[in-house]
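Quick start: read one record
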Amino acid sequence: MSQRYFIFFRALAVALVVAMVPLFAANSILNQYALSIAEDEMSSMAERYLERAESSISTAVSALQRLDRDDIQTCSLPDRKLFQRVILGAGEIDAIGLVDRMGKRMCNVPDIEMNGEAILPNLRPDGPLVGIGMLNREFMGARAAVVSWDLRDGTRLFAEITPAVIAGDPGPAYLRGFRRAELRLGKDILWYEIGGYSSDGDGDSGLRVVLTSTQYPLEVSVFAPKSAAYQMVGDLKIVAAVACAGLVLLLVAIGVWFSWRPENEAHEDFIAAIRRGEFIPYYQPVVDIETGQLKGCEVLMRWRRPNGVIVSPGQFMEYAERNGYIFDMTRHLMRQTCIEVGKLYEENPDYKISINLFAGHFKDREVVQDLKSTYADSSISYQQIVVEVTERYPLEDIDLARKIMAEIQALGIRVALDDVGTGHGGMAYLQKLGVDIIKIDKMFIDSIGDDDSSTTIVDSMVELADNLGMGIIAEGIEKQEQVDRLIELGVTAAQGYFFAEPMPAAQFIEYAEELLAKEAEANDVIIDDDDDEDAA
């Protein structure tokens, strides 16, 4: 009992101290926090630019090396056909060709009118094997880079890197509107620039992050005014001014709660909820946006409390992952899918069902055994299953994760990368993991059509998926305009509240049966029309 009172009085003392802290101290803390977060975000932005640049250069160098190894050293028709094949296989490369000793094009695939201008400097006997330069062609602030490979016979292979690879615009919205980013080759040659902000040289006037590549002579600089970072905490400053008195009451209440609640009771409640099966699957339909037909669903977790209240995953998922409960919860969820929608999937073998995994599932092979023990003898076949892993959180051991994914894929299960473009991944990350499907995050869908950069990024994702033979699904669809734009870009599978929100099994089965009935009715109409034509 004395320990409980100690906790209570300690919380009360903290509450009184916090109430006496001057408001300017709170503002100072918030400002420092905003600057720290902004610098971290700017560093992440710079890292993404470097990753894109390094990946595109490495892809071009590898392509030119392969051509050299294959003894491709002429402008003959067979060699130009091989150039075309390499271009089709590498989304980063726009053109491949040969230049002479003076750096002038001898041939170019795809064919263009060659005006005799040099695109590379004169060949030097002691020059490097690999050269990197810039062309005058530009797209959204990014110039087309050219990578050369010395064939040691007076000619060089070259590959032009598409500017669209570099022209993305990562980072949070509150910084994107004010920042300036520059990607340079060496110290002087500008590859990409975006934004209009510039520092006046005063160290206190703005934030600046500079990163250099360890692979190539690349440097990224990101600048932003401090005022942009402060915007992030503007509302919090107002709340801090109003909430001083309320904070005392809150901390006292927390002290009372902790003084009478056993420390491990929260853990016990959570374990009991798992044991009672309170964590249940909700199903969000994935549809073909061209035909309106159902393609399957994504299984999402909800916590249904004994009083019937449904708790969203945002309130418990991080806790479950951090404390290791997520493994039992995921196994239970998979078993429930067999019970609840197994018959529907047995009758519709083309339907897919997506199960969400997190980074911890790829630390060992246990998840492979979980999938086998759940679905091996169930009504849902391996070929109907998709496992999703998010890009937002990094996989600690990429090589091990790839092996586990390959073992899952060997069963016939497909692997999808969720939240693509929002986290730690990139094109090289996608290729190394070898996923089958990429899912476009709602962040890009929300501004598609209104924001040219979002449309460009989605277009690049579609092109990347096509080049790598991957499927693609758009998430978070809420408007008809988004559907129309996605169809124009070549995306056919999507999910979101525009079609249907996540729902319990019975409601999902009813939804699926309604779509099947509409499809059957449409087919009957087509058959009747054909019969009428035959009769005529």
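The CA atoms of residues 338 and 378 lie 6 Å apart.
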